[in-house]
Amino acid sequence: MTPFKFTLIISAIAFLFTACSDSTSASNGPKYLLDEERQEFGIIYDRCYVTENSTRWEEYVDTSYFYYKFVDDYLVIFKGHNTSDKTDGDSKNKDEFAIMEGGKAGEIYGTWKETEKFCSYSDGSIDCASKKEKGERTALLYLKVTSSSLSFSVKMEGKYCMAERFIDNEFIEGLLEDNFDMDTKDFSISRSDCNTAKFKIDGKSVTATGSSEIGNDNVITTKITFSSGNKTCSYTEKRVIDEIQYPESVCNVDDMSKYTTKKPNRYVIEYDNDIDFKKKFLPCVAEMLDVEY
User: Fold this and answer.
1) Which residues contact 34 (CB under 8 A, 6 or more apart)?
2) Domain locations in the chain?
3) pTM of this structure
4) In this structure, are strands 139-145 and 150-156 parallel, antiparallel, or unpaired?
């Protein structure tokens, strides 16, 4: 793998060894790499190590690499490999990751924001679907690059309606079909308002409500509740987009409970704590609907 040229030269050799290995040794250097000539950058992540009943936080653990190009006023970012993958760092199989706008054309420095419309890159050009075709994103990825920092973040833009996830993204339909062996003819779904939907099964009506918010630490917290009669089933999911550094605050036994049971003595790369969905929420819904799970 060809090493990146650092924007900060101080202690470059030390950073290079940190970035290109899975070492947990700490450094006081920046947590990014940038090579403007090759149009490449890397983000160095801190990670939470989990055991069966404990956690610990380590800095400068692994690095994800990205490649970019400018197309008109857009910045197109492609995702490369992560040092934990143990794959060939020179691989040309790069996946399109994000299309951004808002920065200065041809200049990586500044603040870039993911396009609200759903856009794709092909053969050197950008094609964006109309709002009518695919709607617009409400959770947008940001890339901020300065002379001394480079990082992703995510922000909620506009109003996010959970009813769209319930119906348009087929959350309710998928939940009923995949977990309770139902068919679309077995139930009907309707939207009540922005954050509420209702569905009926064998004459039983269920109200689904939800909310989703993004904290300053980039943690996306989603809460969903099903209610019918005097029965209520709820669960909360917390997650961070894989390419964004998750905060040290989630490095505890409760927030990492999903991983302490599945990945003991390893560090967590992708943080998504939805453990209560299968353990508590689905059994509760099965009891509500009087079906087997």
Assistant:
1) 4, 5, 6, 7, 40, 41, 42, 108, 145, 150
2) 12-156, 162-289
3) 0.83
4) antiparallel
